[in-house]
Amino acid sequence: QGSIITIMGRYLATSGGSMSYFTSSNPNITISLNNVPLACSYAYLTSDYVVCSVPAGTGVHALTVSLASIQYSASLLLAYADPQVNFISLLPPAGGVVSIFGTNFGYNSSLVTVRFTDSSTLLTSLCFPTFVNHTLITCSSPRGVLGHNVGVIVTVDSLSSSPPVPASYAVPYLSNIP
């Protein structure tokens, strides 16, 4: 889900400093992430600030504002929220599908890394995402080689959930003995 950002500055308005409403079709202003113009659904401009809606995303990106062909980019960075893990399904001891529920996971599995860590043995194991949306990651976990103090860290586009969220292995059981 996108968000509203406010960019503060001085002397930003080109028409006497009064507030004006503009859309992405206004040729006098461009707001870009990583040099790609945003299609702002709405924005306000005053002498001191610009307000714009930005699309959903992940990571940290360079932000530039151009007003009347003058580019302002004094080390502006837009940082999306860190991923947050809320719940993890039981880890299959023999390996298999694990579901991780939370927020800010994005939609691009190539930008997602899931690490299982064991604080007592300092071992780390990766879980390879098979499905990612903004609130759910499913991944193929390796066989249970970690100890009992397992935590999960999700990294999305350079931003990580922290601290590790505790996870548990499913307990094997016998259902029938002939």
Architecture overview:
This protein has 178 residues and is mainly beta. Helices cover 0% and strands 48% of the residues. It has no helices and 17 strands. It has strands spanning 3-8, 20-22, 29-33, 36-37, 43-45, 49-54, 60-67, 70-72, 77-79, 84-88, 96-103, 112-118, 124-133, 136-141, 150-156, 159-160, 165-166. Strands 10, 11, 12, 13, 14, 15, 16 and 17 form an eight-stranded antiparallel β-sheet that branches. The chain is elongated and about 80 Å long. The chain starts with a strand and ends in a 12-residue tail after the last strand. Residues 16-25 have low confidence and may be disordered.
Report low-confidence residues grouped into runs of 5 or more: 16-25
Question: How many DSSP helices?
Answer: 0
Shape: elongated
C-alpha termini separation: 54 Å
Radius of gyration: 22 Å
Strand fraction: over 45%
List the helices and strands and how they pair.
Layout: E1 3-8, E2 20-22, E3 29-33, E4 36-37, E5 43-45, E6 49-54, E7 60-67, E8 70-72, E9 77-79, E10 84-88, E11 96-103, E12 112-118, E13 124-133, E14 136-141, E15 150-156, E16 159-160, E17 165-166
Antiparallel strand pairs: 1-6, 2-5, 3-4, 3-7, 5-6, 7-8, 7-9, 10-11, 11-14, 12-13, 12-15, 13-14, 15-16, 15-17
Task: Give a concise summary.
By secondary structure, the chain is mainly beta. It contains no helices and 17 strands.
